[in-house]
Task: structure prediction
Amino acid sequence: MTRYFKALPITAAALMAALVGRAQEQATSTATTGAIRQIPVSDQMFRKTITRAIDLREKQNRPMFSDGKEISRVIIDAVKRGELTAYKNDSVTSTFTPKEMSANMSYALEAPISPDANGGDWGGAPAPSARRNPAPANDGWGAPAASTPAASASRREKVLDKNGKPVKKNGKYVYRTVRTSTVAAAPPPPPATSAEYRPKDIYQMELTEEMIFDKKRSRMYHQIKTVSLKLPSTLKDNTSGLEKTIATFKYSDLVKVFRNNPQQAIWFNAQNDAQHKNLADAFELWLFNSYITKVSNPAGDDLASQYGGERQGLLAAQQTAADLVEYEYSLWSF
Result:
C-alpha cells in the first residue's frame, strides 16, 4: 500500500505532462494552419483540403461588399494599421510588409507628356514651329496686354517709434525700404507613377478550407484556414490580363480583426438595419456563396486543369460539391 501511494504522484505528474504536451501540440497545429477550431488528429476520420472562389459582386455576397464597408477595405486598412499580417501565399510562412502589399495592389499611371514631345525624345531636333514670330499677347480687345512687372525683392513699410506707432514728418508717414526673402519656393513633388486599386475593384477572393469529419461528434466541419484577396483579370488597368494574388491572411487573424472592428466589419442586412452581422459570424454561418476550384490531389491541379477548360471546371465544381455532400451522408453509416 505504501508503494502504491509513493508511485501515485509520479503517475499523476506523468499523465499531466502528457496532457499538456498534447494540448500544446494541438494549439501549435491550429495556430500554424490558421483555423480557429481544434479537432485532434485521432478524431479525424476524413479530411480534404478544398479551395473556393468568392465573387463579391454576386447577389448573395453583396452584404459583405456594402458601400464604404467592403471586406476588402476592412482587410487592407487593418494591414496598413499594423493590426493584420499579410502573407505571400496560403502556406502562411513568408510575410508581406504593408508597403510591399500596397505595391502589389497598385497599377502604373500613364507617364506625363514630355515638353519635348515634338521629336527631341527620339534623338532628333524638335519639329520647327509653324509660326516663327508668334503674335504679341493682347487683352482680348485688340490692345496690347499690360506687361506684368517683375517681382520686387524689397518692400516699403512704415517706420515705428518705440511705442509701436507710425512716425510722421510734416504730416506724412515716414517709410523705409526692407529687403524681402529671395529664397526660391520648394519644387513641386514629382508626379506619382502608380496608384492603388480601390477596394471596390478588389471583388475576387479565394478561401482555403479543410473539410473534416469528426468521428467522435459524427459531424462534418468546414475549417477555414486562409482567405486571399485576388486582383481580377478583367480590370481595365490590369494590363497583364491575369488574376493575381494580392495577399493571403490567416482566418484566425481575420476573426480577431472583425471582432475588434464591429462598426466596419459588418455583413449588411438589407431587410433590417438593426440586425447587421459581424463578418466573423457571416463566415461561421456560411452566409456567402462560393464555388469549388480545387480539391487536394497529388498533382496539385485545379478543376479547370483536370477537366480541360474553365467551362468544364465550373461544371466539375458543381458535381464535386454534390459528391462531397453525398459522401458526408454515406459516412453516417459508420
About this structure: Residues 80 and 98 are 6 Å apart (CA to CA). The helical segments are 2-33, 71-81, 98-104, 251-260, 279-284, 303-307, 310-331. Residues 27-32 have pLDDT under 50 and may be disordered. Residues 31-107+198-331 form one domain.
